[in-house]
Amino acid sequence: MLAIADPADLDHGPRTKSGTERMCAVTRQVAGIDDLIRFVVSPAGEPVPDLKRKLPGRGLWVSLSHAAVAEAARRNVFAKSFKRDVHVSRTLADDVERMMVRSVAEALAMAAKAGQVVSGFSKVESAIEGRQAVALIHATDGAPDGIRKLNAKLAAIMRENAAESVDLPIVSVLSSDELDLALGRANVVHAALLAGSAGKTFLARCQTLTRFRMTGGGNSGGTDKTI
């Protein structure tokens, strides 16, 4: 849907009541705010991603896509929209991705503190068999054999519970080192998420990071539950 409004228009802050749709400053397409990233300008004159949409000041919106943010940096749409000098790093898209990764790791750490995460192959396997797992987590650099075995275990459980519409996501967005830091232990390759509100936050942030990493942003439209 092409926007009619001027793409340089900014919002009036995180408390604005002007709706749940915004226009991407790069593509000039209107989308829901969950499909966009809000940016504000810091006192130092640099664009700051407002991932939680809470930072004060007027904001500019860019599609939830690494490619779109990289293009916004290349064209410096921030200076045009904010009508001021804005110093944009060439690594802005990568910087945003790193912020998202930290956000995901922080959410996983909170879930672990709430007792909603178990790690280690045998514990994860037990959580799957005991129908306690609500999501399966693998390190992005994990060994294929272990990943394949746990995925097969999960698939078998899902088939057994087909009548109950059991459909558990498989998450692979953090490296083993990042899982180690989040969970406070060494050599984490596999983990299972247990039921709880903290776990829901983790899954939501994983989905956002995955969509950002995709070339075009948004959902892939696939039928599997891998995040």
Topology (SSEs and partners):
Elements (H helix, E strand, L loop, with lengths): L20 E3 L6 E3 L3 E6 L5 E3 L10 E4 L2 H10 L1 H6 L9 H22 L3 E3 L1 H9 L3 E6 L5 H17 L9 E2 L4 H8 L6 E5 L2 H17 L14
Parallel strand pairs: 7-8
Antiparallel strand pairs: 1-2, 3-4, 3-5, 6-9, 7-9
Helix pairs in contact: 1-3, 3-6, 3-7, 4-5
If you had to describe this structure to a student in words, what would you say it looks like?
The protein is an alpha+beta fold. It is built from seven helices and nine strands, in the order βββββαααβαβαβαβα. The protein has a four-stranded mixed β-sheet with strand order 6-9-7-8, sandwiched between helices. A hairpin with a 6-residue loop joins strand 1 and strand 2 (30-32). Helix 3 (92-113) packs across helix 6. Mean pLDDT is 88; it is low at 1-8 and 217-224.
Mean pLDDT: 88
Instruction: Write down the secondary-structure element order.
Output: EEEEEHHHEHEHEHEH
Q: Point out poorly predicted stretches.
A: 1-8, 217-224
Strand order of the largest sheet: 6-9-7-8
Q: Count of helices?
A: 7
Q: What's the count of strands?
A: 9
Spatial gap, N to C terminus: 27 Å
| Rg, nearest Å | 20 Å
Estimated structural class: alpha+beta
How would you sum up the global shape? elongated
Q: Helical amount among residues, as a percent range?
A: 25-40%
Work out the strand percent.
15-25%
Largest sheet descriptor: 4 strands, mixed
